[in-house]
């Protein structure tokens, strides 16, 4: 390995690849592809891990020297009925078990949307806190930190009633910081003019449990789930976020999680190489003249 | 007219139909259709008014006894260059002229998105305030109130950098309340847990210039522009908003503005009748047992 390659790989110490970014890759290909590219941390999802097998996944990670930056996801805690609530709590305990088995210190919690026919957001948000109160002792006993993720307000009805970093911190602060933190995802939070103040608040409390990155591009696709932007393609000041989460005391990796159907249709290795290139240019490198988007976004009004 | 019909029509004194809700209707059909249904206020858009003719539109409105609750829209004030800024200001003065000619006391201001290649939301927001400072004397001289509309955060990059009622009030409060107010649109604000406090703030300052209604339904369509929900089809507590804007001192009509391609494919008269039915049931009527959505939303997670 040349010294240049070595330094290029060393700058990936604080990088993590969420497996959704290269959904086209199986777990063995993900592990081999990351190791070959010098990536040392991966964010995993429960469904592919279960399909491949929990023990087999843990073995694969050891074989390639990979650590798990986060497991996605627990949550969906807004259902009002006792039976649905019990089922959700059971499911979350299983998620904690899986995180512990993978050595993932962080389990991402996506709150869940409004139950069918319900118009009471405040009540749904209260049920999330109440459910976390039951989960926290279990998660703590297994060495897993719960990370409440605010999702963009466009997901408030059907996916996540926690829409801002302020709301996520309001919930997390009901518990000790070692037990419950928050996820800072640039895609969900970039638009919010209170995010600087809330990141400072998160820093004072030591609450940033995970930092995730994707860019914001428009037009949004049908269903708004799989149109997240490759780093640098959109309008998010990713570098600013990196500095702010570092100032907030976050020492974990920057985990790139891009849901994008176009990326999924390409070769996984090519996508990973592009992600690393963009990560170096738009996240790691100092702000410079070469800082514009690589392709002009077509849908912005001048 | 029976006394029952008369009372049914009287409860429309505080109702306005934005013409985008029945985009399939020409202006003459809109005017005749509203008058036949007992609707007395309409919200108009500049493009169809200009296509029909400004004077012809004003004549049509007089003929049918209709008043204009709002004209949409001015704004798009975020461009940084001098030439683009001058052009935008000229365009907004023309919009003020048109509002005055129609007797519309309120011109809706949609701020505009991020300029191409720009990642500085704060700077774009400052340019909106700076441009309004130039427009306010002109609008005031013409008896037109500028109404800053916060749009849902999913439009922050390509349409409107003002995403919350708090931000809209921060801008409006740079000017006197008679000159600059805000738009409260349920579709854009329903998810925000600070909206109650911000509506109270708007009330103290007399800042609510316009109240618009649409419901929130998912899945969102490609481009997220034409999937707003018919009243009652979604998860917004419309009644709550009506009470809060009234408590905030708003005395204008509740203007229903639904961008929905399915509504546009139907007969306009049928759509208006449905809107009025839903308005009575989900906005005017006291909360009751018959308060659930008329059709169960399919995409909510239980």
CATH superfamily of chain A: Divalent-metal-dependent TIM barrel enzymes
Low-confidence stretches of chain A: 295-302
Helix content of chain A: 40-55%
Strand arrangement, largest sheet of chain A?
1-2-3-4-5-6-7-8
Total of helices of chain A: 12
CATH topology of chain A: TIM Barrel
The structural domain count of chain A equals: 1
* Mean pLDDT rating of chain A: 93
- Determine the most extensive contact between two protein chains: A-B, 51 and 51 residues
Protein name (chains A, B): Sugar phosphate isomerase/epimerase family protein
GO molecular function, one term (chains A, B): isomerase activity
InterPro entries (chains A, B): IolE/XylAMocC-like, Xyl_isomerase-like_sf, Xyl_isomerase-like_TIM-brl
Domain Xylose isomerase-like TIM barrel (chains A, B): 34-273
């Amino acid at each position: 390995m040349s010294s240049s390659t070595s330094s290029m790989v060393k700058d990936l110490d604080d990088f993590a690849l969420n497996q959704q970014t290269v959904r086209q890759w199986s777990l063995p290909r993900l592990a081999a592809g990351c190791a070959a590219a010098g990536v040392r941390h991966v964010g995993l999802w429960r469904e592919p891990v279960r399909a491949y097998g929990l023990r087999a996944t843990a073995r694969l990670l050891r074989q390639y020297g990979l650590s798990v930056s986060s497991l996605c996801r627990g949550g969906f805690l807004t259902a009002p009925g006792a039976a649905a609530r019990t089922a959700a709590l059971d499911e979350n305990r299983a998620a904690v078990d899986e995180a512990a088995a993978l050595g993932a210190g962080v389990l991402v919690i996506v709150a869940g949307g409004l139950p069918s026919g319900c118009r009471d957001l405040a009540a749904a948000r209260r049920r999330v806190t109440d459910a976390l109160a039951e989960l926290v002792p279990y998660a703590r006993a297994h060495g897993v930190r719960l990370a409440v993720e605010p999702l963009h307000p466009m997901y408030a009805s059907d996916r996540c009633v926690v829409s801002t970093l302020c709301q996520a911190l309001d919930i997390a602060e009901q518990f000790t910081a070692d037990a419950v933190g928050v996820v800072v995802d640039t895609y969900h939070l970039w638009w919010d003019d209170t995010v600087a103040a809330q990141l400072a608040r998160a820093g004072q409390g030591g609450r940033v449990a995970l930092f995730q990155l994707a860019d914001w591009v428009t037009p949004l696709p049908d269903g708004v789930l799989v149109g997240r932007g490759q780093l640098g393609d959109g309008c998010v000041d990713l570098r600013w976020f990196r500095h702010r989460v570092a100032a907030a005391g976050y020492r974990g990796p920057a985990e790139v999680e891009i849901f994008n159907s176009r990326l999924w249709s390409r070769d996984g290795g090519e996508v990973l190489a592009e992600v690393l290139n963009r990560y170096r240019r738009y996240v790691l490198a100092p702000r410079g003249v070469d800082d514009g988007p690589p392709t002009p976004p077509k849908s912005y009004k001048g």
